[in-house]
Design brief:
Chain A contains 18 helices and 14 strands. Chain A has about 475 residues and is an alpha/beta fold. Chain A is about 45% helix and about 15% strand. Chain B folds into 3 domains: about 120 residues, Rossmann fold (3-Layer(aba) Sandwich); about 110 residues, Nitrogenase molybdenum iron protein domain (Rossmann fold, 3-Layer(aba) Sandwich), CATH 3.40.50.1980; about 160 residues, 3-Layer(aba) Sandwich (Rossmann fold), CATH 3.40.50. Classes of the chains: A alpha/beta (about 475), B alpha/beta (about 450).
């Protein structure tokens, strides 16, 4: 089928005199502005990539919704009750899916919802929500409750804010509404709502005091213990970490956030907005960091030390990054011959992660030939273009056929993506690395470099490929 | 693990904790994937279909293709008509399926979108089809979605016929492709010329080929769904899942159905075999008799270890009923039988089954339940084995009870979707899994002097 379509709409573009041939078969007209080539804007209008839009009707979008964005950011808060107000699906699909590890409570690994029924849709669901909150508080020692409104609640007009206010007054605990109907925007909108909710958790504890030289880590979700790896580095440097947002967070640690003098933002897509709000409210400056790959990890540690302006810490950071990077050289020397010359395709959630991955592949001598993100932003796509070699395909909100088309055309050896992309890659005979919710090894920091390289090697050089004659 | 769960059980009126179901559209998607060259389409927000595709990909370890109307705020105010019309045009232009199967969501149902009318207003290319069904997420579970989508296909496509095409319809129920293959194998051995609908074998268990086929080889063909109106009879497997599609088929085309339990366990498989034999007048071939003899032989060996052992069985209603039947055949007690699907006939059928074996007073049965409650029951009186979906994993760890994975979804293992739990072969597999799980634990926890090499 694919070939037939290609015949139908095959289109050759000679790019910037480089003779690069791009096949645009299988691409919806509306989608063409969301796909560019790094050296030339082949499908767009010359103004760069079209992004930060809702998906085109009828496309096989890989994206989730506003509610999902809010839920994935808040879910790792370990001792919170997350009550999903809506029919069962929204709570079912997001039950314990993130792989965020906890050092304390495992409350967040349960799924709470109001499981709305037809009569609730007709008569309104506020009563049932009130009862659900009562039931939580009556039987459990609840201190923090998030109430998420899903699509249908947005339509039937339940006033969840009023319910939450009343419950807060009744029980003297935090009950925070997150109004996240799926249709009200993109996943990024959900990130924003989550950030606002986090602000509501921190606000009541603000007392104006500061802990000198201390930081918050924003936008890391402690998948496979990645937050702990970063915390370990900061501990060695003598930097105190107050709040981890939201990986392995608790109400108590979150409420120390306003005491920090610096915010570092790992997942920029989800948490830059929170950093900006904290800057406005409490004057805490922020820097964006990335702990994926040696280069970015070392740079991030040095930049955090510099931003804190403590000479002693800066010295320690210099020594530590040198030692840690050199420790990895033997390891990399061993693996490089197995990986150099391979080609990678990247399809991840945010643009910042894509940037780190391109750098990391460069370190390994792997060329990145396709880059896509679900929610990348304009500035990020600009950086991606600069980092990529000529002819690299860059896509926003790609669908499986587009991924297939360009992975084949560019002869990718490995795809880095999430749950929906894994079987697609395997079907194409392409290796795969999960860099999303389902990663099973920590991929951040120096430890993460080892895990990442081992995983890439394991997949690219698996003996099973030999059987696929 | 699960420190929250208290032993003391108190009534909950509003709060659902740790569900044992998901919403209708997920089932509708799975059903539509069992139709050849069909693009399932979700009429709702873009997140819904992303979730359904993820859960199917996690269970089957396969791509699960589907499109979405991608509702915006405007669509909620003015209706999703233009969204679905644009979507259908785009889908035929680019993905080129033969048929699009739309299902609704809680959102499009609540704003009152009338897909029937929208489809009539659409400009559908010659030779192509669009069908739909209503799957409000606030009614029932994914099981309802599955049978509503079946009913939707039948309503649109099945044709009443004066002449019989000599075939037998087989409705496999909400089962894995591995189960469907086993059902087809048995039908083939009984010389049945059959139409299986839906049929996800060859779709959700497609082999690796080095290329990605958006529409793999498998799936019920559109002509076959049309032909369901001319079959001799339908053998429908799953007493709860198949009521609705069989009723719609009868109303539309007059075709009768034998609605049987899922063929899990010996008695249920016997029923399936006999129903087919009655239709085809074929003799039961030796190879099936041999399979039956083998599994009964093994069950006799196994029952020495399993007799009186207690199981908690949870998941989809027909699957739970089938597995309970199998464990009862070996003298085990299905101490707890729970489904999240709110269909009350589950309770009656379970009670009747337990009554038949005289163990009703020892067991607890619940439809519309959740895994939090199951965990509480277990805290009050434990069991020897959990049999059900991956979501029992936390209970298994918290209470140190072995878990046998069966049903939907199984998110943390591979190869399960390609293997049957139905038929004599499926029974053999289930018995082996249950036995291994219980004996492995026994070997792990027993004192050194009690560890036996020969059992």
């Amino acid at each position: 089928m694919w070939y037939a379509l290609m015949q139908k709409s095959l289109c050759y573009l000679n790019l910037a005199g480089k003779g690069v041939v791009i096949m645009t078969a299988d691409i919806l007209e509306e989608r063409k502005k969301s796909i560019i080539s790094s050296d030339f804007c082949c499908h767009g209008d010359g103004k760069g990539i079209s992004c930060e839009k809702v998906s085109v009707s009828g496309s096989v979008s890989q994206r989730a919704c506003v509610y999902c964005g809010a839920r994935v950011v808040l879910n790792p808060i370990t001792d919170a009750f997350h009550i999903i107000h809506g029919p069962i699906g929204c709570s079912s699909y997001t039950w314990d899916i993130r792989g965020s590890l906890t050092s304390g409570s495992d409350l967040f690994r349960n799924s709470f919802s109001t499981d709305l029924k037809e009569r609730d849709i007709i008569f309104g669901g506020t009563k049932i929500l009130e009862t659900a909150i009562d039931e939580v508080v009556a039987k459990h020692d609840a201190k923090l409750i998030f109430v998420y409104a899903t699509c249908i609640v947005g339509v039937i007009g339940d006033d969840i804010e009023a319910v939450c206010r009343a419950a807060e007054a009744k029980y003297n605990i935090l009950v925070i509404p997150v109004k996240a109907p799926g249709f009200s925007g993109t996943k990024s909108q959900g990130y924003k709502l989550a950030c606002d909710a986090i602000m509501k958790v921190i606000m009541p504890a603000f007392d104006g005091s500061k802990i000198p030289g201390s930081i918050n880590i924003l936008g890391d979700y402690n998948l496979s213990g990645e937050m702990w790896i970063m915390q370990g580095y900061f501990q060695r440097l003598g930097i105190k970490v107050n709040a981890t947002i939201t990986g392995d967070a608790s109400l108590e640690t979150l409420q120390t956030a306003s005491k920090s003098v610096l915010n570092i933002v790992q997942c920029a897509g989800s948490s830059t907005y929170l950093a900006k709000r904290m800057e406005q409210e409490w004057g805490i400056p922020y820097i964006k960091v990335s702990f994926f790959g040696i280069e970015d990890t070392s740079n991030s540690l040095l930049r955090v030390a510099a931003a804190l302006g403590d000479e002693a810490v800066m010295k320690k950071a210099e020594t530590m990054t040198k030692i840690e990077s050199s420790k990895l050289q033997d390891f990399l020397t061993k693996y490089k011959p197995k990986l150099a010359g391979k080609k990678a395709a990247i399809y991840v959630g945010g643009g910042f992660k894509a940037i780190s991955l391109i750098r990391q592949f460069n370190e390994l001598g792997i060329e990145t030939v396709v880059v896509g993100t679900q929610t990348g932003q304009k500035e990020e796509y600009d950086i991606i273009r600069e980092l990529s070699s000529p002819g690299t395909i860059i896509m926003d909100d790609a669908n499986p056929s587009e991924l297939e088309t360009f992975m084949k055309e560019k002869k990718a050896d490995i795809l880095v993506g999430g749950v929906k992309e894994r079987p697609l890659a395997y079907k194409l005979g392409v290796a795969f690395c999960d860099h999303n919710h389902e990663r099973k090894h920590a991929l951040s920091g120096y430890d993460g470099v080892k895990n990442f390289v081992e995983e890439i090697n394991l997949s690219i050089n698996s003996p099973v490929w030999e059987l696929l004659a | 693990m699960l420190d929250l769960t208290p032993k003391e059980i108190t009534e909950r009126k509003a709060l659902r904790i740790n569900p044992c179901k998901t919403c209708q559209p997920a089932g509708a998607l799975y059903c539509a994937l069992g139709v050849h060259k069909c693009m399932p389409h979700s009429h709702g927000s873009q997140g819904c279909i992303s979730y359904h595709r993820s859960v199917l990909s996690r269970h089957f370890k396969e791509p699960a293709i589907a499109t979405t109307s991608s509702f915006s705020e405007g669509a909620c105010v003015f209706g999703g008509g233009s969204n679905v019309k644009t979507a259908v045009k785009n889908i035929f232009d680019i993905y080129d399926p033969d048929i699009i199967a739309c299902h609704t969501t809680c959102l499009s149902e609540t704003i009152g979108d009338d897909l029937n009318t929208y489809i009539q207003q659409m400009d559908i290319p010659e030779g192509k089809l669009v069908v739909h069904c209503n799957t409000p997420s606030y009614v029932g579970s994914h099981i309802n979605g599955f049978f509503n989508m079946m009913a939707g296909f039948i309503e649109y496509l099945a044709e009443k016929s004066e002449t019989c095409n000599g075939k037998t319809g087989i409705f496999p129920g909400f089962v894995n492709p591995g189960d469907m293959r086993e059902m087809k194998k048995i039908a083939g051995l009984l010389k049945a010329d059959y139409i299986m609908f839906p049929d996800t074998s060859g779709v959700m268990d497609a082999p690796i080929t080095g290329r990605y086929d958006m529409y793999p080889k498998g799936g019920t063909k559109i002509s076959e769904i049309r032909g369901l109106g001319a079959v001799r009879k339908v053998v429908a497997l799953g007493e709860i899942t198949e009521q609705e599609p069989c009723m719609v088929l009868k109303r539309k085309t007059g075709v009768d159905s034998d609605i049987l339990p899922l063929p899990i366990g010996i008695a249920n498989t016997d029923e399936y075999v006999m129903a087919l034999a009655r239709l085809t007048h074929a003799e039961v071939p030796y190879v099936l008799e041999e399979e039956r003899g083998q599994i009964v032989d093994i069950m006799l060996d196994a029952s020495a270890h399993l007799f009186g052992k207690k199981a908690a069985i949870y998941g989809d209603p027909d699957t739970v009923l089938g597995i309970a039947s199998l464990v009862l055949e070996m003298g085990m007690i299905p101490k707890y039988m729970l489904t999240g699907t709110p269909i009350e006939s589950f309770n009656k059928k379970a009670a009747a089954l337990l009554e038949k074996y005289g163990v009703a007073d020892q067991c607890t049965v619940k439809a519309n339940g959740d895994l939090f409650e199951l965990h509480q029951w277990i805290k009050n009186e434990t069991v020897d084995v959990l049999i059900g979906t991956t979501y029992g994993k936390q209970i298994a760890k918290a209470e140190d009870i072995p878990l046998v994975r069966a049903g939907f979804p199984v998110l943390d293992r591979h190869a399960h979707a390609l293997q049957p739990i139905v038929g004599y072969k499926g029974a053999l597999r289930l018995v082996e899994m249950i036995l291994n799980a219980i004996l492995d634990k026994q070997d792990r926890v027993c004192a050194d002097e009690d560890l036996e090499i020969v059992l």
